[in-house]
Design goal:
Structural class: alpha/beta
Pathway: Fermentation; pyruvate fermentation to lactate; (S)-lactate from pyruvate: step 1/1
Radius of gyration: 22 Å
InterPro entries: L-lactate/malate_DH, Lactate/malate_DH_N, NAD(P)-bd_dom_sf
Strand content: 15-25%
CATH topology of the largest domain: Rossmann fold
Number of strands: 8
Number of helices: 7
Oligomer: single chain
Helix content: 25-40%
Strand order of the largest sheet: 5-4-3-6-7-8
Pfam family, one: Ldh_1_N
Keywords: NAD, Oxidoreductase
CATH class of the largest domain: Alpha Beta
Order of helices and strands: EEHHEHEHEEHEHEH
Protein name: Lactate/malate dehydrogenase N-terminal domain-containing protein
Shape: globular
Length: about 190
């Protein structure tokens, strides 16, 4: 790039990059913080679900975190752990319940719940067990948070993302899977 002497840089073809490309950035106002409250729900408080919840909490990603699990004692313990950690972090409201109503108004619902694969069990059998679980998870989740984005983490993630999309009735662009076709290749 050549300098034309006026402080601006001339790009290929004599294009003044400083005054054309960078000008909108230099002269724009900083973004205005919004007062919008964000709510993220994590379904399943196993190792993966809690790692996600802890990351959301420590990175100050959401104003509210809702946890759902079928095991009330484990759920309460995990909620208390997060609440105690939150005492030293930016204020995030943390709730937990076995009832999906706690997820009402969520912007993002992350589903990590699922059966563990037994030794020697095929991926197809695991899929059948997790589809049965999803029939109990996705409809009440979609009812409680009809405008949410669903992020599926449960395995086999590719197929379960499709199942969640069908069970939720959400548009295809609001049901995402964390997979990269790795699980599909294991069938």
């Amino acid at each position: 790039m050549a300098n034309n002497g006026s402080g601006s840089s001339l790009g290929p073809g004599g294009l003044d990059l400083t005054n054309t490309f960078f000008k909108p950035i230099l002269n724009s106002d900083p973004p205005i913080p919004s007062n919008r409250c964000t709510k993220v729900s994590v379904i399943g408080v196993g190792n993966v679900g809690m790692a996600i919840a802890q990351t959301i909490l420590t990175q100050d990603i959401a104003d509210e975190i809702a946890l759902v699990d079928s095991k009330p004692d484990k759920l309460r313990g995990e909620m208390l752990d997060l609440q105690h950690a939150a005492a030293f972090l930016p204020r995030t409201r943390i709730t937990a319940s076995v009832d999906y109503a706690v997820t009402a108004g969520s912007d993002l619902c992350i589903v990590t719940a699922g059966a563990r694969q037994n030794p020697g069990e095929s991926r197809l059998n695991l899929l059948q067990r997790n589809v049965a679980l999803f029939r109990h998870i996705i409809p009440p989740l979609a009812k409680s948070s009809p405008d949410a984005i669903l992020l599926i983490v449960s395995n086999p993630v590719d197929v379960l993302t499709y199942v969640a999309w069908k069970l939720s009735g959400f548009p295809v662009n609001r049901v995402l899977g964390s997979g990269t076709n790795l699980d599909s290749s294991r069938f």
